[in-house]
Amino acid sequence: MALELRQYQKDAIQKLREGFAAGHKSQLLYLGTGGGKTEIAIAMLDAARKKGSKAAMILDRIVLCDQTSARLDKYKVDHGVLQAGHWRYRPYEAIQVCSAQTLEKRGSFPGLDLLVIDECHSQRKTTIDFIKNNPHIRVVGLSASPFTKGLARTYSNVVSPITTKQLVDQGSLVPLRVFIAKEVDMQGAKKVAGEWSTAAATERGVRITGDVVSEWAKKTREVFGKPEKTLVFAAGVDHAANLSEKFQEAGYNFISLSYKDDEEWKRKVIEDFAKPDSSIIGLIACDILTKGFDNEYVKIGVSARPFSKSFSSHIQQMGRVMRSNQANPESKPFAIWLDHSGNYLRFKDDWDNLFEDGVKELKDGAEKAKPEPTQKEKKESKCSACGALWTAGSDTCYNCGHVLERNNLVIQVQGEMQELTSGGTRESKQEFWNQMIWLMRYQGWSKGRASHLYRDKFGVWPKSLRDDTPAMVLPETKRFMDKKLKDFLKSIKSERK
Questions:
Q1: Does the predicted TM-score (pTM) go above 0.85?
Q2: Of the four listed, 192, 267, 288, 414, which is most buried by Cβ atoms within 10 Å?
Q3: Over the stretch 349-380, which tens digit does the pLDDT of each residue have?
């Protein structure tokens, strides 16, 4: 079939061309998982070929090379796979697909004009050195999570053609319904370079394996009426094997995959799982499924590997279940995310900002460990009847219809598993900011005063919020303002004493 790009994909290519024209030799294309980075890459590779140039795409693993080669075949784009013994070894083709490991062994790529690097946030040293040693080659790195240290030193420009929210709004991705389940207790667990060690996460994760299985069985039938295709992200190889065993004992065909398994066996399992009528209900792995795994039939993701600082990994995992079923959109209006890791609350503000705004610039620093939400914070803002986050400005729970006695914005509840809706916190922030706008327009407040009150409320400055939806101040906001004023006056009196 012919490759037909969507408008935002065409816009991405145009912006990259403008970046090259402006003198940027290495650029990074940010696009949410499922946004079609591979299609954009193929279009660029083919355009280079048609101009008589030589182009290559570097992927992180050999299995991804085969998947990309199959995608090129789908669009009838001639190419070779640069791997000794590969059936498609055609070094004479203008387009070459190869693994990063192959590039490391070769050390050079004669005559190359365009290099596309998939999952460029992985930051392999040999690939970075190759870029630096070949400044004449135009480079495009692809990533859905460009937050690792050093990217800004390799890529001088970032192109972000569309946000994840816009992809959801237009149906290219599906929204997530997030449930907070019994989480892995990582208190006091060993950390390595600021991240919980795999051994510690595995040891703690095995303790709640039974809860993972039972909660999945409960939710898949409660939400979908039957078992649906699932990806489970485990803490380690042993944890994945333990989960697979417990799912099998419960009567569900879940298979664990790891680097220890034969590559051909893994390929066949993934191909079988991809079939709509496969007997395999779920796949379990550590990181194999976070890169290049695309399956529009997956409706459930289970997070069982806690991350202290790796927002990148969290994004990659969630993205694997958000791909829409373009052939039959009605069959997958949303996906559910069962969070046993605590990652969703841990990274919620970062996710809300990325979801709404995309990536505007690359930062050179490394990801930092996030502070743990308190038990109080974990219980707040959820419907006491079903655990769903309250929609800002509403007195009725969208999920179960429970009516809220609205005497405070924060509700403390108990619950075994609690649902959060994507963007809920952002909606609460927008609601509060709407009231600040009203105060600025009709009470003569300055924007600085309103922004400082917002910061007192949420701990961050107002960012990327609408300024055209004023709303009258709610009683709970008035109480918050009164308290802040009393605290301020009290501090003044203390200073004078």
A1: no
A2: 288
A3: 899 889 989 998 888 777 888 877 777 766 65
